[in-house]
Request: fold
Amino acid sequence: MNEATRLNAAFAALADPTRRAILARLASGEATVRELAEPFEMTQPAISQHLKVLEDAGLVLTRIEGTKRPRRIAKEGIEAMDEWLAMLRKALEKNYARLDKLLAVMENARRRKGAQR
Amino acid sequence: MKKMTLQTEGDTHVVVTRSFAASPESVYRAHTEPALIQQWMLGPDGWTMPVCISEARPGGRIRYEWSDGNGRGFHLTGEYIDLQPYSHIVHVERMHLPDPTPDNHVDTRFEADRTGTLMTVRMTLPDAKTRAAMLASGMEGGMEASYARLERMLQHS
Reply:
C-alpha cells in the first residue's frame, strides 16, 4: 500500500464514530477485543471487524501474547495523518501568503484613492 | 496572529480560519473578482488559473480551471447561493478529477478585527466518507509542491 492509499484508508477509517472511540480508548493503553467490546456494548466479532479496518489503515497494531491478542495504537499511522494535515495547511498557507501580497497592493490603491478625494 | 487554522468539526465539517492585514472589502473582492482570484488561488508553485468565471450574484456560476503548464490540470465548478458584500459568501463547489466530487457547501465570513479581517470558512460535506476523501485527496497538491521543492534543492546542490 503506498502512502496516499494508506492515508485514504486512515481518513476513511476515522469517518466512523465507533472506530474513533476505539482509537481514543487505545490511546490510553493496550486492550483486548473482549475488553473493548464491554464499554461499547458490541459483540466481539463486531469489534474485531472495526479493529481490522483500523489495522488495515495502519492505525492499530496487534501483539501476540500466548493466547491473547492485545491491540495498541500505531503511533506511525497517527503521525502520518498529522503530517499530512500539516502539509495541507502549508499548501493552503501558500495561497494565503500570495493573497497577503495582493491585499497589500489593493490596500495601497485604496489609500491613494482615498487621499485624492 | 496571521496563523491559519484547519480543523475538522463533527463528522462532516472542515473549518479554516485565517487573518489578513486588509479591510473586509479587499478580502471579499479578492475572493469574488476573477482578475483578483487568478492572482492568488493557485496552489503549488508553477500552477496557473487560465480560466476563472465568478458571477458574484445568487445563482451565479463559478468555474476555476487550473493548469501546471505541462498539460496537467483539473477544474472546479460551483454556484453562488447568497452574497452579502463585504461580509458573507455562501456557495457550493465540486472538483472534477475528472469525475465530479460530491458537493461541498461553503460558508465564508469576513469580519473586521483590530488588525484587519478575520476570515472563517466553514465547509459542509454530505457525509464523513466524502470529507475523509477530500482531506486525503488534497495530497496531490501538497505532494506536488514538495516534489517541486525537492527538485529545486537537487538542482542547486
